[in-house]
């Protein structure tokens, strides 16, 4: 494969094959039910085949389609277990695999970005990609000063393919709704689109990474690889070896899972205060645990700019939920624009809706589990909580923070992590540890 399939007609045809394939399998499924097979067995088979097709197509297209699949992968923990397994397998593969571009194409991009003498900047360069990302692939190399480096090269045509995917994915958004129960898929797609377009400029990503690397330099718990060189479609950063979070999710021991979860949580909550930025691409492929036990963070193409740190109202709302102060909670939410205009709400209903989300900060040690996340999805998907949720609003400035927090929570549930979250929130979330609202 020399470059990304970029023609709109070709990419649309591949994306369109997903709902057509699902429809064909549904018809076949009804036939099996008529033949006497159980509804559960047929449903499980449909889920497995649909998952395979959805993520095979997304992975093949790379670009926005693959990026969207990666973003969805962290919500897998909310899907009921009997449906989740095929998605889990396909999503895990999608986090770290995509068809590579040819060596000649990759060399052409390097020459365009680093100059015709680009080879002289390296003493070694492995033409076989070490990893694949949504809009680029990573090669292992040795810089001219002897440092091992990771070279990320953007796929030719990534920009055209990205915009084409985003248009088409909007059309097929209902297909992906089962993967994010309790969350509106179209706003998620729109917000992801904004972040993805930013990620096309590797120079901006390199600048973000430099900022993070400087803030976390020498940190005993977090490692951000330093940037060695950058261009619009190529970045060179220090190489870091480690165990991917996806591997720990699949086969990690209890201590490994708990430790990784705590490190990820601390990184998520501390970054806005320490860096003024929030890493906004939370999926397991972007995190590793190094041999010395640190969390290595990569891929800084998408960030939220929070120069004042995390918004204080979020901390106050969490605390009021834990303390059961329903009237104060509803008043604050109205003041901050979290209630739709003209909506009449019962304060106790609002508290009942939000309090379970605040539970991890309310106890000494919390167990982030798939079952807990599934319960939250089931809860907000029907009954009074569903009605309450329809009356609430997420102000635009909170949308990205909410998605990143939900994504990070999804990873914690995939890890099945047990740890104490309250001290982390007390230290880093403004408003939470205040004595009075």
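-> sequence recovered:
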């Amino acid at each position: 494969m020399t470059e990304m399939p970029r023609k709109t007609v070709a990419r649309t045809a591949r994306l369109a094959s997903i709902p057509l394939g699902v429809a064909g399998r549904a018809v076949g499924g009804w036939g099996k039910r008529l033949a006497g097979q159980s509804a559960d067995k047929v449903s499980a088979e449909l889920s497995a085949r649909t998952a395979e097709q959805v993520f095979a197509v997304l992975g093949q297209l790379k670009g926005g389609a693959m990026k969207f699949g990666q973003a969805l992968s962290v919500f897998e923990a909310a899907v009921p277990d009997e449906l989740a397994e095929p998605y889990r397998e396909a999503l895990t593969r999608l986090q770290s695999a995509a068809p590579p571009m040819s060596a000649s194409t990759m060399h052409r991009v390097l020459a365009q970005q680093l100059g015709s003498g680009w080879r002289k900047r390296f003493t070694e360069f492995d033409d076989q990609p070490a990893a694949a990302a949504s809009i680029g692939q990573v090669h292992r190399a040795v810089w001219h000063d002897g440092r091992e480096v990771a070279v990320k090269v953007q796929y030719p045509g990534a920009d055209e393919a990205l915009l084409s995917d985003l248009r088409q994915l909007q059309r097929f958004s209902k297909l992906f709704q089962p993967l994010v129960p309790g969350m509106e898929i179209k706003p998620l797609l729109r917000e992801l689109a904004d972040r993805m377009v930013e990620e096309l400029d590797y120079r901006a990503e390199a600048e973000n990474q430099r900022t993070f690397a400087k803030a976390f330099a020498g940190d005993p718990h977090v490692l951000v690889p330093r940037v060695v060189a950058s261009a619009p479609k190529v970045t060179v950063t220090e190489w870091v070896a480690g165990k991917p979070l996806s591997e720990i999710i699949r086969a990690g021991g209890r201590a490994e899972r708990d430790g990784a979860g705590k490190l990820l949580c601390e990184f998520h909550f501390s970054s806005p205060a320490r860096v003024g930025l929030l890493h906004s691409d939370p999926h397991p492929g972007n995190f590793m645990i190094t041999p010395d036990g640190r969390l290595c963070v990569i891929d800084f193409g998408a960030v939220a700019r929070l120069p004042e740190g995390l918004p204080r109202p979020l901390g106050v709302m969490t605390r009021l939920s834990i303390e059961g102060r329903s009237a104060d909670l509803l008043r604050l939410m109205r003041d901050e624009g979290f209630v739709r205009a003209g909506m009449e709400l019962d304060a106790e209903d609002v508290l009942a809706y939000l309090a379970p989300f605040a539970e991890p900060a309310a106890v000494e040690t919390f167990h982030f589990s798939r079952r807990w996340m599934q319960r939250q999805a089931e809860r907000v998907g029907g009954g009074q909580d569903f009605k309450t949720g329809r009356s609430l609003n997420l102000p635009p400035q909170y949308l990205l923070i909410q998605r990143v927090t939900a994504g990070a929570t999804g990873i914690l549930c995939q890890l099945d992590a047990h740890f104490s979250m309250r001290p982390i929130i007390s230290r880093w979330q403004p408003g939470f540890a205040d004595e009075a609202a």
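The chain has a mean pLDDT of 80.
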